[in-house]
Structures are given as structure tokens and as C-alpha cells.
Design brief:
The chain is an alpha/beta fold. The chain has 18 helices and 7 strands.
Length: 435
């Protein structure tokens, strides 16, 4: 995976590239990010960046060795010698970072920008398919045979298929993919032994031996077997742990890693990705991104269960409460009760997001930018509809309604009661949201 294929996280990408380019890369990194933030994808991109032949200069160095000559016995080989055959190739120049001197470089040796892997060299192609011999993986697995401790290699075929299809999936999705049913996934003591064995071998192709461990929270005390290896790894060995909950990681392991903390994704990044990669219409992408809470996995789940226009549905509801009366309310409640619990929950979350946007506008923390015009207008009208205390009361009622929806409450009774409560909260200021 390339850095450019990871959603958002621009500052974190720049930080990682800077660490590599300035030789400040720790031998053990902990990518810490909530579900859907892209921590695992970023670890894959980092691994591919490190093994890329264009980034680490392997391809250029091989050519330089062929063209290098020695003018006198014992003299150091020049890395910028002319062509072996008569006329020199068309040249440009490259600056030696140590001396600042401009050296000619043949046209087929142009350096590529080093802010991302090339995606084309053999190492990149192997890394992208999760088959590079120097990139190893460790992840939660379940027992295949009773009495035997499983290891990640038992599921390597399933792992590759799963990650290539669902790079932003969570651990629950993975366990369901391997038919774990109700079994608890773990990283076992036997797995730790396999890790030690692999990382003590020499690298096959790249300058690094890399281990990507997903969900180190599921390492029990057996994880202490890895402490010496993490603290004093063989040369060129890199650990990349990918976690969601810092508090569940063994303190002895946590203290030996460099923390790379990922924030939730920006709604605009989720919106753009839904539009470009999933073909979602702009308005629907905006609505889904607004209620995904920076979680792209959640956004995909909502996309799979949502074909409703939440904004129109919300306007109809509020107008039935404040303008058109009980008959319209009953009709609206019949419609909302038929769409299923997951969609009902998404609708209520969308309403909460509208209120949050209204609060930002009220306090001066919101602005109308990009494709947020529709949300902005709706939130602005809602500020005219009711005051801050009323909005806080509505949020509390919506949170409670989500709680009951998740517990399979009767939808008609729930939304009928909620309609009555909203009427009493905002009845003193009956500004209609649409003309």
C-alpha cells in the first residue's frame, strides 16, 4: 500500500517520511488509532516505503556499481562516473547531501521523490500483495485443532485475502471472516516463539526485516517473551505494532516503543474517499461522513445499510411536529419504523451531528466551507428554531433514543414518545426549517 492510498493522516505521513529521511526511525513503533482511523493501512504503507527499491536507492546503486571506475589503485570508487561506453548519457544533476556538490546523473538514474514508495519496483509489488519475504505479520487467530496453540501463519492465505479486500476492517470482521464464531482471538505464546525465530534470520531482499503486529492488546503475559528482542533487536529489524487501546497493551512492551498517535479522520477526507472510491453521490457522502465520527469503517457500514436522505427525513419530522400536526406525525412514524434499527440509529446520529454543527456556529467555531453548505444551512436554521438549552435537551433525548434502539425497543412507541418530547422542548419557538 502507498501512503497516497491511505485516507487522510497527512501530518502523520509526513512525520514518518521525515523520520526515515533524517535517520530517526525507532526500531519499535506503536501506531495507535481508533477503529477506522487507518492505523493498519499506514503501517502497511510504511513497510512498503522502507522496502521500496527506489526509495532506499537499491536500483540506482546497482547501476552506479556498474558504471563506477577507479582512476588509481587504492582510490575510492566514484559513484558518479561517466558511462563505460564512449559518449555519456544525457545528464541532469543531483546534489550530494554531504558535500553540496552537484553531480551529473544519467537520465535513467533520475531520483524519484522520496515521499512515497514507487509502487512499481518488484519489492513494492510484493509488499502490495502482502508476499514480501522480509515483511512478516502477526494478528489474532483462533485454534483450528483442539489442544494446539494457533499461529498467524496458519491463516496467512485468509489474511491476505481479507486485508486486500477490507483494509479498514476491524478485529471483529477478521474473526468472522475466519469463522471464529464465538471464539476469542489471541496472539499466543507459540506465535511469540515464531516471531523470535523469524526476526533472528537474515533479511532476504530488503535492508529491513519488518514485523507488523495487529492488535497487540491481545498479547497476554506471554508477550514478555518478546521484550529482549524488542529492546535489542538484530540489525535492520523493525517492529510496527498497530493498536486501538493503549491501556490494554503490556506496560513492558509499551515502554519500549515510539508512539505514533493517529487522530480520527477528518469528515472531508471520508467524504472525498466515498465519492471517489465508492462512487457515492456528493450529498449522501456528506451525510455519511458527518455521522461516522472519523471512522472510515463505520462510514462503510453506514453506506451498506443506508439509502435514505436523512436531511429530508429530518425536515419532514420537524415540520410534522411543529406545523402539519398529528396526522403527519403518524405517517412519518410509520415510515421510520419500517427502515430497521441500524438506519434508525444512523438517522438519530445525523440529527445529533446537526445539533453539534449548530452549536459550533453559535459559538463561532463553525464555518461554511467545501461541500458543507447544506449542513451549514440546516444548522443555521436550527439555531433560529431553539436556544442552546433546548438543543442540549434534544441531544440528551436523542442519545437516550439511540440507547433504546440498540436494545430493540418498539420503534413506533419510541419515535411517538420522542416526537412529543421534542414538541414540548421547542414549542415556544416554532420557526419552520423549510419555506
Amino acid at each position: 500500500m502507498l501512503f497516497s492510498q491511505v485516507i487522510g493522516q497527512r501530518e502523520t505521513k509526513e512525520q514518518l517520511v521525515h523520520m526515515v529521511q533524517h535517520n530517526r526511525l525507532s526500531h519499535a513503533l506503536l501506531f495507535l488509532g481508533k477503529e477506522g482511523s487507518g492505523a493498519l493501512s499506514l503501517a502497511f504503507a510504511m513497510a512498503q516505503y522502507l522496502v521500496c527499491e527506489q526509495v532506499n536507492g537499491k536500483g540506482v546503486k546497482d547501476i552506479e556499481k556498474l558504471t563506477a571506475v577507479k582512476e588509481r589503485p587504492g582510490e575510492e570508487t566514484s559513484l558518479f562516473a561517466p558511462s563505460l561506453f564512449g559518449e555519456p548519457d544525457p545528464v541532469s544533476s543531483i546534489q550530494d547531501p554531504a558535500s553540496g556538490i552537484q553531480h551529473p546523473v544519467s537520465s535513467n538514474q533520475h531520483p524519484v521523490p522520496q515521499t512515497d514508495a514507487c509502487g512499481e519496483c518488484p519489492a513494492c509489488q510484493k509488499a502490495a500483495q502482502l508476499v514480501h519475504p522480509d515483511i512478516h505479520f502477526s494478528y489474532p487467530v483462533v485454534t483450528k485443532k483442539p489442544g494446539e496453540q494457533p499461529i498467524s501463519a496458519d491463516y496467512i492465505i485468509e489474511w491476505r485475502e481479507f486485508i486486500l479486500q477490507h483494509p479498514y476492517a476491524n478485529a471483529y470482521d477478521w474473526l468472522q471472516f475466519i469463522a471464529a464464531e464465538n471464539k476469542q482471538g489471541n496472539i499466543t505464546s507459540r506465535e511469540c516463539g515464531e516471531i523470535i525465530k523469524k526476526l533472528n534470520l537474515k533479511s532476504f531482499e530488503a535492508g529491513y526485516k519488518i514485523l507488523i503486529m495487529w492488535m497487540p492488546e491481545l498479547l497476554g503475559k506471554e508477550g514478555n517473551k518478546l521484550l529482549k528482542l524488542i529492546e535489542e533487536p538484530p540489525a535492520g529489524t523493525l517492529f510496527m505494532l498497530v493498536a486501538e487501546n493503549e491501556g490494554l497493551i503490556l506496560p513492558t512492551i509499551l515502554s519500549r516503543t515510539q508512539l505514533i498517535k493517529l487522530p480520527p479522520l477528518h469528515a472531508r477526507d471520508i467524504e472525498a474517499t466515498l465519492e471517489l472510491q465508492e462512487g457515492v453521490p456528493v450529498k449522501k457522502a456528506e451525510q455519511i461522513a458527518a455521522i461516522s465520527d472519523g471512522n472510515y469503517h463505520e462510514a462503510l457500514q453506514q453506506l451498506a445499510h443506508s439509502d435514505e436522505d436523512w436531511e429530508l427525513l429530518l425536515r419532514d419530522w420537524l415540520n410534522s411536529i411543529l406545523k402539519t400536526g398529528p396526522v403527519a406525525q403518524v405517517k412519518w412514524i410509520d415510515e421510520i419504523s419500517k427502515i430497521g434499527r441500524e438506519k434508525q440509529k444512523q438517522f438519530l446520529m445525523y440529527f445529533i451531528h446537526i445539533l453539534q454543527t449548530a452549536l459550533q456556529l453559535r459559538t463561532g467555531g463553525g464555518s461554511r466551507t467545501g461541500n458543507q453548505g447544506s449542513l451549514y444551512d440546516f444548522a443555521l436554521r436550527f439555531n433560529k428554531l431553539c436556544g442552546l438549552e433546548q438543543q442540549e435537551a434534544i441531544v440528551q433525548e436523542l442519545d437516550q433514543a439511540i440507547y433504546y434502539v440498540e436494545r430493540n425497543a418498539n420503534a413506533k412507541m419510541l419515535f411517538h414518545a420522542l416526537s412529543i418530547k421534542l414538541y414540548h422542548i421547542i414549542s415556544n419557538k416554532s420557526v419552520i426549517l423549510i419555506q
